[in-house]
Amino acid sequence: MPNRPISARNLGCLISLLAMSSLLISGFNRSENDMWFTMIVTLVGFFPLMLITCRTATLHPGRGLFDILEILCGKWIGKILTVALVIYGIGICSIVLCNFAEFLKDIAFPDTPFYFIAVCMALVAIYLANSGIENMGKWALTVTIAICTVFVITLLLSVNLMDVQNLFPILQAKKSTLLAEGLYGGMICYGESFLVLAFCGDLKRGDSPYKAYGIGYAIGFVVMIVTFLRNVLILGGVLLQSTAYPPYVIARIIKVGEFLEHVESIVSFVYIFLGITKVAVCLRVSALGLEKVMHTKVEERKYLSLPIVFFVLALCVFVSTNVAQILKFVTVYFYLAIPFLVVLPVVLWILSEVRHARQKKAAAPERTVQPQHSK
């Protein structure tokens, strides 16, 4: 089946799900009641990287991330960088799978083996990744609508639980802590959207990468900052810092008579969709990278996801299977991600601008001075 293009709207929904997937589960817990400020730091700090990524995609219409690497860096360096990105994608996939599998195990299936939950989630993610970018876009649109609907409903149902005093005192945390938390959160929710550049070659004709990333950043920012404010208003900064899954805890205390209980079940079910989506995106990006390196045919791409998942599940042993160790590992992850999510996008953008300027100069007609002839 041929690979059909994806609209900017659906790609934007995919970006928003990547942004929300990890932070909605854990959040800026160290910021306590100042997490709204760290979210602003996140947006301001990574907005330039979004523009850089969009500009790079615009300068290479119809090309994905791995094609751009080969064009700008050459065949061999491009392959080395592609392999590095594949390994990085597998690492992200493993972290996300561990995080969400542990979340599901803690809240719903305490007696179920961790790896059974992880395998089930991985199988669904494989199916989604192999279904094509167009179907992934439709899935992202559906999940985004579902999450926004649940978000609005739970927000309205929890208004009576909010206390404005929980926001004060403002900016009581150390400025260094707020800055570090904001940059770390930005690396997870917005920095990793650089990998979506691999799908920009499949954008529908006439759609702009700026539109896709703009939609993704806007939806993700609005949902997350309002969610974090709600968490603070209900739980307070001190209690929030010691809570593993704030949105789930808040959903547990929401009760509307006897006709609507166990709202947390709906919330957890929707959040699992976030984890599956991010795992599927990482699987597809890694499969695209392997396809580029191994010169695999497009119709054989689906066979690459299964061995990638085996590596992901094996890596889960080293990443760990409990929340405390995962949160400890992510502090190291910040420094590991900088070369891939900050340095590489900037380098690709500079090389793209240089290449574009040279092409523009070469394509410009040479001006010839015509001699003047007297009549």
In short:
Helix content is 71%, strand content 0%.
- The shape is globular
Oligomer category: single chain
Sheet/helix structural class = mainly alpha
Helix-strand pattern: HHHHHHHHHHHHH
Largest sheet: none
Give the overall pLDDT as a whole number: 83
- From the alpha-carbon coordinates, what is the Rg to the nearest angstrom? 23 Å
> What is the total tally of β strands?
0
Approximate strand percentage: under 5%
How far is it from the N-terminal to the C-terminal residue, by CA? 69 Å
Number of helices: 13
The percent of residues in helical segments reads: over 70%
Q: Spans with pLDDT under 50 lasting ≥5 residues?
A: none
Give a verbal description of the structure.
It is a single chain. Helix content is 71%, strand content 0%. With 375 residues, the chain is mostly helical. Helix 5 (114-130) packs antiparallel against helix 12 (305-319) and helix 10 runs antiparallel to helix 11 (263-294). The radius of gyration is 23 Å and the shape is globular.
Blueprint (SSEs and pairs):
Layout: H1 8-23, H2 35-59, H3 65-73, H4 75-107, H5 114-130, H6 133-157, H7 175-189, H8 209-235, H9 237-241, H10 246-252, H11 263-294, H12 305-319, H13 323-363
Helix pairs in contact: 1-6, 1-8, 1-11, 2-7, 2-8, 2-13, 3-4, 4-5, 4-11, 4-12, 4-13, 5-11, 5-12, 6-11, 10-11
What features would you highlight for this structure?
single chain; 375 residues; mainly alpha; 71% helix; globular
